[in-house]
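re the bet — no i am not wrong, look at it urself. input seq straight from the record:
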Amino acid sequence: MNRRKNNLGLTLVEILLVVAIIAIIAGISVPFYRNFQTSQELDVASKEMLLNLRDAQNRSRVGQDDSVWGVHFNSSFDEYGIFKGTSYSSYYDDPKIIPSVLSVTSNFGTDITFSKALGAPATSGIITIDGEGGEAREIEITEVGLINLN
């Protein structure tokens, strides 16, 4: 009697080989995904900050509530928000939280205000937003009130 045995299953070696290949691919992919995620957070945070600075500037230009407007960064630069008046006492809206994978610095301190009508800043300067992977964005605020993302 000649019996032929059909093997329809997988051996343990084959299963371990597939698991090892998946682990290697996952191990290679994680750093790329993390860098991509940090880059995306950096882009979103810098664009949101740019919009908030321009919002405060526009509120000053139109003289909303007959006041100047500004943006305040807390001392650890992990949140910021728009305020009304010549100096910060409280946020006008809810503060914006800066993601923990980013760090923010400025060369003008924690407050920037904009003049009524012209929207010129009280001080010009640069806000630098750094990501974990060494990638950075700069928001430049010029003496005449141009606010640009570099």
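see?? Residues 12-149 form a domain with the minor pseudopilin epsh fold fold (CATH 3.55.40.10). told u. also The chain has a mean pLDDT of 91. so pay up
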